[in-house]
């Protein structure tokens, strides 16, 4: 027989024992091993085991007190590793506390008949112990037994529930959690002298009856409690022919307690409804019951458009509090956000809530390529919105770009390709200017890797570290510059601002052409070659290419920002994303704005000044840049102030060009509109 624990209970309620170490061989807890303590199959805590003295090697001791306020019949100890008991059988507690019920019956109390009793215990427990009077699953009364100087516990408990008519109910005591099923007390409605039932619940409220059996002519009143709070009161005086036919009361004990179902708050439990006699507080037969409720929310998952999950969800219980929505695919949450966008159409449909829309960007490499359905649900729940599931319709441009951008060349093929491209761009060199200030190191590493992985080697990367305080940034930049002579590093000991750092990078550039790269974005492998080749073929001063807009993971592409033929108005009104742009270096230097605070619009000022000086502009219809969309960059930090500064820069540009258009906010964030006279 396998070894088992030795357990004993002392007269002070302390449980002591010894446990062979073999019983813990499967345990994997860190620190001292522990056991779970179960009292009548309910866990009450854990205990730590202590190694035995050297005289008894390979064993553990434990000691803990039994609760002072609660009795029990069985004690068990379980391993935390697998839930297995370390005892041969649960330890019976009755022989230790030796509960002796000396009396249990009816007694006359100050408020009528009560259930009274007395008992003794062999172990020292609290001077006041809770006693419940039950019949099956119903609680008829609750109170406390008080211990006197002689150690005798006494209780007298008034009943708080009415009994059924007909067959008697058998009352038994539950003393400090220990059910005493070997004694019982018969209870009928006549013993209380009152009767009452909740018959049914309708859309109008709760119907039932109540009667005084001892004084049939006395009228009674009833109260409706919702989670303990009174919400309605009525007199039990409506005609009830069925009561009259049965000889109960005076035949006029019916009542209707009005109650209207309300939307249930998300994650809330339905309130409990209780019907009690107003005079005595007795709860009627058929009470409590769960309140009828209406759905706490409504909404719809409407569609997936350009990798964005679109829909609405309204909190009916509290329309001012937006709901959090999750988008789920393959049982995995892939997007989460609040339904707090304006939806006037929902309000116009008669629902009391306008701010209930959601637009949740998905990890769009999955949205573009997967055939799996997507569902929208309340965050943290299984409540799925109507309209689920939706499928993302693949965007061919995104699909093609992702597959092409992630294509890897063998070392041999890459060397052959570099040699061929070098011949086609002979005499040209691209200076990539990057300003850096405390980006995420992994994002900066991605940006640098995208440059070093170019198929054409005719480039230099000019990095201006504008006073980064993260040691990881200095280390990463230093190692990159040491590994690759094409990386030129400039450092500012303190942060001087984007405009100054940007101008330093432009002035340090030595290539024939210049382009900008954010410290958290990336180039496609063919970017340098295609930009230089386009500049050579077009002889343009300014070359514009297309970009992919991604989320924090650059492979999660949400949209392609593509231009057609160059349009001055469209260029000014577009979102503030001036990449990728290729400049002739001398033009870029001439376009540098004067040193001053441009309130976050330094880049816009520079690009617009370059635009004014360009004699020819070309568009290259190719995605060469991956822009990371997140909440940590300069644009997000400057927010509305940056938008205003950008509009001011465009206004200055129009004034220099002698154009009379007014610059106004656009219909969506990050765009502007031109109003011409």
Automatic annotation (TrEMBL):
It comes from the Bacteria. InterPro entries: Glyco_trans_2-like (IPR001173), Glycosyltransf_2 (IPR050834), Nucleotide-diphossugar_trans (IPR029044). Transmembrane segments: none annotated. Residues 431-547 form the Glycosyltransferase 2-like domain. This is Glycosyltransferase. It comes from Acidicaldus sp. The lineage of its organism: Bacteria, Pseudomonadati, Pseudomonadota, Alphaproteobacteria, Acetobacterales.
């Amino acid at each position: 027989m396998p070894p088992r624990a030795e357990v004993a209970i002392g007269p002070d309620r302390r449980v002591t024992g010894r446990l062979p170490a073999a019983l813990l061989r499967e345990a994997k807890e860190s620190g001292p091993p522990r056991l779970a303590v179960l009292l009548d199959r309910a866990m009450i805590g854990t205990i730590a085991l202590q190694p035995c003295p050297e005289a008894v090697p390979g064993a553990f001791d434990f000691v803990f007190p039994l609760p002072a306020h609660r009795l029990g019949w069985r004690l068990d100890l379980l391993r935390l590793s697998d839930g297995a008991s370390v005892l041969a059988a649960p330890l019976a507690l009755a022989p230790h506390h030796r509960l002796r019920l000396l009396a249990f019956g009816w007694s006359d109390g100050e408020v009528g008949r009560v259930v009274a009793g007395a008992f003794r215990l062999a172990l020292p427990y609290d001077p006041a112990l809770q006693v419940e009077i039950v019949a099956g699953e119903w609680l008829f009364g609750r109170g406390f037994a008080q211990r006197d100087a002689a150690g005798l516990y006494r209780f007298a408990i008034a009943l708080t529930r009415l009994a059924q008519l007909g067959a008697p109910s058998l009352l038994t005591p539950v003393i400090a959690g220990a059910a005493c099923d070997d004694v019982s007390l018969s209870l009928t409605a006549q013993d209380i002298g009152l009767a009452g039932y909740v018959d049914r619940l309708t859309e109008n409220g709760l119907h039932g009856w109540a009667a005084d059996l001892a004084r049939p002519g006395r009228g009674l009143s009833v109260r409706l409690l919702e989670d303990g709070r009174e919400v309605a009161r009525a007199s039990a005086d409506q005609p009830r022919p069925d009561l009259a036919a049965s000889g109960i009361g005076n035949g006029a004990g019916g009542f209707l307690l009005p109650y209207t179902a309300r939307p249930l708050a998300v994650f809330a439990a339905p309130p409990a409804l209780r019907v009690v006699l107003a005079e005595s507080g007795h709860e009627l037969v058929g009470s409590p019951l769960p309140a009828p409720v209406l759905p706490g929310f409504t909404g719809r998952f409407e569609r997936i458009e350009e990798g964005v999950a679109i829909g609405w969800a309204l909190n009916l219980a509290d329309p001012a509090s937006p709901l959090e929505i999750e988008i789920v695919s393959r049982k995995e949450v892939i997007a989460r956000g609040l339904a707090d966008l304006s939806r006037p159409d929902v309000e116009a449909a008669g629902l009391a809530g306008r701010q209930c829309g959601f637009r949740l960007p998905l990890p769009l490499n999955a949205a573009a390529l997967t055939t799996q359905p997507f569902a929208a649900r309340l965050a943290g729940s299984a409540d799925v919105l109507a309209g689920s599931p939706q499928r993302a319709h693949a965007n061919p441009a995104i699909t093609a770009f992702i597959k092409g951008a992630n294509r890897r060349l063998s070392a041999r093929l890459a060397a052959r390709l570099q040699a061929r491209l070098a011949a086609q761009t002979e005499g040209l060199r691209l200076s990539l200017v990057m300003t850096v200030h405390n980006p995420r190191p992994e994002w900066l590493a991605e940006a640098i890797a995208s440059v070093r992985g170019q198929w054409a080697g005719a480039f230099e990367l000019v990095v201006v570290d504008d006073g980064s305080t993260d040691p990881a940034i200095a280390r990463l930049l230093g190692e990159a510059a040491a590994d690759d002579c094409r990386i030129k590093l400039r450092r500012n000991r303190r942060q001087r601002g984007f405009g100054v750092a940007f101008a330093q990078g432009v002035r340090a550039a030595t290539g024939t052409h210049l382009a900008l790269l954010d410290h958290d974005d990336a180039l496609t492998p063919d970017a340098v070659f295609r930009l230089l080749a386009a500049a050579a073929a077009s002889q343009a001063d300014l070359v514009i290419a297309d970009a992919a807009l991604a989320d924090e993971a650059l492979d999660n592409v949400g949209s392609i920002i593509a231009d057609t033929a160059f349009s001055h108005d469209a260029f000014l009104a577009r979102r503030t994303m001036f990449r990728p742009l290729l400049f002739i270096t001398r033009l870029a230097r001439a376009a540098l704005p004067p040193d001053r605070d441009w309130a976050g619009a330094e880049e816009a000022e520079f690009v617009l000044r370059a635009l004014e000086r360009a004699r020819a502009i070309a568009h290259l219809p190719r995605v060469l840049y991956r822009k990371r969309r997140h909440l940590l960059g300069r644009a997000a930090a400057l927010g509305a102030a940056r938008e205003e500064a950008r509009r001011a820069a465009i206004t200055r540009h129009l004034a220099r060009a002698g154009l009379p258009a007014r610059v106004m906010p656009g219909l969506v964030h990050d765009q502007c509109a031109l109003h011409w006279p």
